Amino acid sequence: MGNQFEEMRQRLHHIGNLSNYIEDLFTKLPGNLISEKQRKKMMKIMMDDEDLQNLLDGLKNPRPPKFVLVGRTGVGKSSLINAISGRYLAEVSDVEIGTKEAKRFAYEADGHTYFEVIDTRGIGESETFDTNAEDALKIVIQSFEPDAVLFLQKAAERAHIDKDIQITKRLMKKAAEGLPLIGVITQVDELNPSRIKEPDSYPPEKIRLIAEKTEQLKRIFAQEGMEPAAILPVSSYLEWTEQDGGSPNIAFDGRYGIEELIDFLEDSLDIRAAIHLSLSIRLNTITERIALRFTKVFSALAGTVALSPLIATDIAVLLALQSILLMIIAFLSGRELDFKTAREVIVSLGGIGATGFTLRMIAQQGSKFANLIVPGAGSAISASIASGGTYAIGKAAMAYFLRGADESELKEIVKQAQKEFETNE
């Protein structure tokens, strides 16, 4: 990771301080674009928005994800953590948590903590796991403040699943109610034919067995009245090369389903943990994921602004909000824009066709906005148009600044953005 990690971390932290300099951004808006009353009301709406504030806090204060791992001995807990990170991590456990029923670990490499976990150490195997042990574990888990509970079950085993799920049910009710419960079927590479470790070469029979194991675990959870947030089959099979004085590198990669698990975790975790996870293991894609989060938040904000009778929203006011979104996405790519440039980019995006969204409306009155001749120029807009146009601008800006898309690609992207927005409405 090194310098690239630090550069991106600092860039995200800078954006996270948006709340500290947002007033300065608004004071730099041209005076004939929006009125002082509109300016103050927009600032209040933005600073009162809970989703935006959570996102900004996550960017400033990322932290390692915290998991409670439930699973029997040999289920592959450490292998799963290594597979998620793509690195050979060291287990560091220097915290005494006061119960023999669990152990707390940090998984680290090169001075960087990737995950913190509480390993329940095979509680289903213990004959002494009674009410007292449950109460002790409850105190440990609640003080740990985990992000999710991962229930791990080996694909090749059927025995004890019912008992393990029953214990997990008691554990969730007592100590982790409301947290995501994720069922993870491990070691699917061991299903027949077990000699085939390359996921791309899994034969139909193996794929069928993986599907059957997934449905089986889903049924057993349902019998106990439980519905996990997800049940995901994975293989954590990795072979490592020995390195003198350094961390081992991957010599053979047999991971299956790990990307799907990471996707689910990033969408389900506390925003601070999700950003840390992305920074740690998906540094090359974190800019797009954060840009998409901002696009969704600002799309909702645009709808709120449009509904405000105190702002008397027109396209000019919306253009100010969209300009800030554009500036954030550009900054994620390493570029800094001023309002004039951001506004010109938005108008040019409108010129390539944004199919009925605000972009088209901007394009229709482009000369007014490009020159800012008429204060408050524009037509009143609905919340749906405001949100949809902002979403389209965000997706187009992501393609332009983060992926280097050309004009012909942008036309298709804004059309697709319209379909996505209408589908999710």
Largest beta-sheet characterization = 7 strands, mixed
Broad structural category: alpha/beta
Total of domains? 2
Can you tell me the overall shape? elongated
CATH superfamily of the largest domain: P-loop containing nucleotide triphosphate hydrolases
Distance between the termini: 39 Å
- CA gyration radius, whole angstroms: 25 Å
Description of the structure:
- By secondary structure, the chain is an alpha/beta fold.
- It folds into 2 domains: 2-61 and 287-424, no CATH class; 66-268, P-loop containing nucleotide triphosphate hydrolases (Rossmann fold), CATH 3.40.50.
- Helix content is 55%, strand content 13%.
- The protein has helices at residues 2-16, 18-27, 36-48, 50-60, 77-85, 131-144, 161-175, 204-223, 258-268, 271-281, 286-307, 315-332, 339-351, 358-364, 366-371, 383-403, 407-424; strands at 66-70, 90-92, 103-109, 112-119, 148-154, 181-186, 230-233, 235-241, 249-256.
- A hairpin with a 7-residue loop joins strand 8 (235-241) and strand 9 (249-256).
What is shown here, in short?
This protein is of the alpha/beta class. The chain has helices at 2-16, 18-27, 36-48, 50-60, 77-85, 131-144, 161-175, 204-223, 258-268, 271-281, 286-307, 315-332, 339-351, 358-364, 366-371, 383-403, 407-424; strands at 66-70, 90-92, 103-109, 112-119, 148-154, 181-186, 230-233, 235-241, 249-256.
